[in-house]
């Protein structure tokens, strides 16, 4: 039997792939055999590209800021990946931001910025990639949500709203595109040691409270999100549509 997790010859685009969870996923896809294009905003992509190439895969990177993204910008990003790799089989919507503020003080500008990056860009890039995939009759879209896609969180109203919304979007797109051979699924990471959680991990009280509540007793490493992404991007997940794979050290089970 062929290895159902093998991604040899597949072409993937990972947004925010030069750092954090995105880098962990990009390297996991490359290790499974995929060529990988990534987007970056502020982190230089050279190191990640070198690791992708060291795995014997093709890498490519494009700089893009998703704030205020429109259809043309989304088509440019997916077009870049398809041109660089010779096609696009897998899209991982990973890029995202968090803004912590008491809800009574949350400025509309920050609310909008979080929703633009965490929701609008996911919609636009999925639409742009989905057009190609539906036409071809195959493709994999993976959306990075969060455990805050099903919980409220503390002082992160826009983030929580965006992460709930992308789970709804995962299900909505799955209903339309599953009949066309396109798998749309989500990952819900728990607390992972990246820039996103730096402030929490730097606060000894908050950090202790979180660690006490995580059954695994530690934060995740970015590389630990790769397995779920490889699975959802592979033939092993051919019958997974609209699923949310939780990778949270047991957080939601608590
Ligand atoms: N860390 C966690 O505990 C955790 C838990 C659940 C879900 N998540 C989700 O996992 C995803 C990755 O987060 P992370 O933890 O790896 O945090 P991170 O290290 O801060 O990475 C965020 C990524 O998003 C990119 N990005 C941020 N703003 C952008 C913008 N305006 N336009 C385009 N790209 C932008 C960043 O690019 P540059 O670095 O190049 O600027 C970076 O690659 C996010 O969707 C996050 O919500 C994280």
From TrEMBL:
Keywords: Oxidoreductase. It comes from the Bacteria. Pfam families: adh_short_C2. InterPro entries: NAD(P)-bd_dom_sf, Sc_DH/Rdtase_CS, SDR_fam. GO terms for molecular function: oxidoreductase activity, acting on the CH-OH group of donors, NAD or NADP as acceptor. Belongs to the short-chain dehydrogenases/reductases (SDR) family. This is 2-deoxy-D-gluconate 3-dehydrogenase. The lineage of its organism: Bacteria, Pseudomonadati, Pseudomonadota, Alphaproteobacteria, Rhodobacterales.
């Amino acid at each position: 039997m062929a290895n159902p997790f093998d991604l040899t010859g597949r072409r993937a685009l990972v947004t925010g792939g030069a750092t954090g969870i995105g880098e962990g996923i990009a390297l996991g896809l490359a290790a499974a055999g995929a060529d990988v294009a990534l987007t970056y905003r502020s982190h230089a992509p050279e190191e990640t590209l070198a690791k992708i190439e060291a795995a014997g895969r093709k890498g490519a990177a494009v700089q893009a800021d998703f704030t205020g993204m429109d259809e043309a910008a989304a088509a440019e990003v997916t077009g870049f990946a398809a041109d660089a790799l010779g096609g696009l089989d897998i899209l991982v919507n990973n890029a995202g931001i968090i803004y912590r503020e008491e809800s009574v003080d949350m400025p509309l500008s920050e609310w909008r910025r979080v929703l633009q990056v965490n929701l609008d860009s996911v919609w636009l890039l999925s639409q742009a990639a989905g057009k190609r995939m539906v036409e071809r009759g195959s493709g994999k879209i993976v959306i990075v949500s969060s455990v805050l896609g099903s919980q409220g969180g503390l002082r992160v109203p826009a983030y929580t709203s965006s992460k709930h919304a992308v789970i709804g979007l995962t299900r909505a797109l799955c209903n339309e595109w599953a009949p066309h051979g396109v798998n749309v699924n989500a990952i819900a990471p728990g607390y992972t040691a990246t820039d996103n959680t730096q402030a929490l991990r730097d606060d000894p009280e908050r950090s202790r409270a979180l660690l006490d509540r995580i059954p695994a007793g530690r934060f995740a490493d970015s590389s630990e999100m790769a397995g779920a992404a490889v699975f959802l991007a592979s033939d092993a997940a051919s019958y997974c549509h609209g699923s949310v794979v939780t990778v949270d050290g047991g957080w939601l089970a608590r």
